[in-house]
Amino acid sequence: MLENQLDDQELSIREFAEGLWETFSKWREGQGKGMPQTGGDGMETGLLHGWLEPQDVTRKEEFICRGDAARILHEFVQRELGEADDEDWGAAREIKDLYDCRVCVKHVAQMICKGIMTAKDGVFARGKHVKGLEAKAAFQRLLEPGTRLAADKKTAALPEQVRAPKKLTKDEAMRMLKECAGIRFLDVRTPGEHAAGSPEGAENLPLLQLISHPERAASNLETPILLGCDGGYRSEMAALRLKEAGYANVSYFGWKS
Hints:
The protein is α/β, with parallel strands linked by helices. It is 40% helix and 7% strand. The protein has two domains: 2-155, no CATH class; 158-254, Rhodanese-like domain (Oxidized Rhodanese, domain 1, 3-Layer(aba) Sandwich).
């Protein structure tokens, strides 16, 4: 199906999903792995396997933007290929618009780190529509790691104090809150998420604000800081930003992870 799409033609969500599934099926066949288990076409299978969301089905004839494409590709890599996330996401940290959408951050970062999608001049352009040529290239990189772009691991050149905030389990974080005097506990989720419920004692400093104004975390760079969110991903990004800003004692965790 995707072969019939013009390289400069914008794709709908349906065309993107069907093209991805068709490309994957042909790749498996070429690898001698047989046809993958399927629930039907790309849309039905994607929803069944979890790399599409219900909103993708209701919006299937709308043009797909790069943010949605990153989400779908990221979920596909995890669910269909069993590929773990790249723990070093430093290659994505220089993207100027990475934090524009809290939902998209992890998906975009992983696709950049894995060399599956690109950013031009430090801008990902999340809302830009995906065309046939970009989709074909992304599908090839996804299935053939040897063709992936070389991701510059930014963190490799950073000082140790920047690269290594402390990742804690929930139990370790709760113990730190009890035992560490003067600690500042920050919930880096949105105000709406914080208002809906957060651990006792957590103050709200949303990730987007912290990225722009790390000095709001504490006036003293030696103040112990514990950052938290649902899964630990946003708190990790916040922790790296604070370490980069010079804070010495930064830890993070996800209370639902």
